[in-house]
Amino acid sequence: MRYFILLLGLLFANFSLVGQTDKEPVLWSHEVHKLSDTEYELVFKGKIMEGWHIYSQFTDEGGSLPSEFTYERAGEDYELVGITEESETIKEYSDIFEVEETFFKEEAIFTQKIKLLDPNVRQISVNLFYQICKEVCIPMDHLFEISLDGGTYVADTKAVDDRSVALGQSLKLDLKNKTLLNQGGMTDSEGKSNLWMIFSLGFLGGLIALLTPCVFPMIPLTVSFFTKQTQQKTKGIGNALLYGFFIVLIYFLLSLPFHLFNSVDSQILNTIATNIWLNVFFFVIFVFFAFSFFGYYELTLPSSWANKMDSASSKVGGGLGIFFMALTLAIVSFSCTGPILGGLLGSTTLAEGNVATNLTAGMVGFGLALALPFALFAMFPAWLNSLPKSGGWMTTVKVVLGFLELALAFKFLSNADLVGNWGIFKREIFVGIWVVLFVLMTLYLFGVFRFPHDGPRKNLSPARKLTGILSAVFSIYLILGLFKMTDLKLLSGFPPPSFYSVVETESDCPLGLDCYKDFEEGVAHAKEQNKPILLDFTGWACVNCRKMEENVWSDPSVYSILKNEYVLISLYVDDRKELPDDEKFDFKFDSGRIKAIETVGQKWGTFQTINFNAASQPYYVLLSSDLEVLNEAVQYVDVETYREWLKSGLEKYQLSMNK
Prior knowledge:
The protein is of the alpha+beta class.
């Protein structure tokens, strides 16, 4: 139980302090004292900010986690002489853990003697894991890179061959006016609005989850429990509010593991989101979810989990007991909420921006929508009388969700097809599948056929008829798009691009524009034509890229400029097509990290990162043919902003040519 409380605090604090690197609560340094030709004393010092503390290596078991040193290659290059000694510590009894804890304030000093086993060793690495605590504790680690002779520490890195070095250098551009790239600030608002959109989707998903048979019947039961378990009405309301808070917290915590990817590689989340087999996996999972909503089987977590949580809630009582009640709700409602959460996870991989941050926003929105009724009905219990009775309408909700899950499933299969260049799910095939799904949903809503868990046949409710009419209208809209009678702008980004068609097109570029998919070829053409360059970092599975092409580039005033005034270079960062063997290489970053470049997407993704310090798509840059940056970079913007941006770059290009 104690470790559970500690873990909860650790996770919450770790997320809340993400990005605060300018306020490090402890600053580490080290010293080396030579004792003899083979013996050294290592001293590790930490300056701790006021109000914070770090735990000793020897704090009592059962409390907060102790500090722990890992001496790399100890026993091979050198041996430890004695234990790691500590400076003066403070001891206090912890009411939470019921043990005496030992910790440092203001300053922590650790000292360790070593004896070399290999006299040629000149540097060693030591890793320190510790907790830095204030109101909450944050797990952290620090790597000490120590040069025994006082020289510069040289990290061990994998060597790359001369061919790789040359190919890596060819990716680096000598950009002029590079500072212009980040001066426009045209991406921040989109990032924020995208986050709010994901939050809203999560909130909507939570509202839908409330209408399912796993959750809806729990509302009056739970609210009645809180309002009647105590004679004090205010206490009952307070407990219900705490219950709602814990629901939000639980779904928030579920998103935290995804933030671990952020520190690995700037391209890793994009790589995951556009991975062929991960998209196929999502397709299979969503089909599996859909058929559970259709009533062919139930998705449940092990019943022992719910029993243990329920037992824990009754045993511990108080706030912790309420937390376990909320956790029990999350577990027992999984058969209905799981597929919706799966859809939310899938949506975050399709949306622009950081996948982990998007998922957190969506999870918080989902949890908030799920928690609101419990808090509101506890404060206004008379409202319970206005709730509709549980019944067959909840089954209809699940079936509609099943059809939506199937529609989203085929989006992932389409992503895999696009990224893998399979050529199977062309635009018309994809739209045709959606036509079939929504026609079937319409027929179901009007009672033409039924699923296994449907109750006795009854008259259709007005809500079901209205939903059926909306589904029929949407089906007609899709049919018109299938036969090119409408451009399906409402679905921009979901169907494959228009040039990915069963009908052969003259161009494999957006909107039939001329484009180059190799940077050097595009630059050579720009020099030949004496035109500026629109560098377009895009992706086959990038929803916002398709939205820009279908909603912004298609505007006549924008399209004319793109077609006549610029050379378009479109680089697909998620293209999994393998490079020829003689073009594969290892790229070494300035940090020493080495990345294998084996696909077209890896090449252009790395190209974007090292030259423009960006990893998101769409990402647009205006360049002259001699690599002068003409304007700030932009991402997802409206027609007017994009048109004026293109015109401004064109004017700057013409001025530079007249000098």
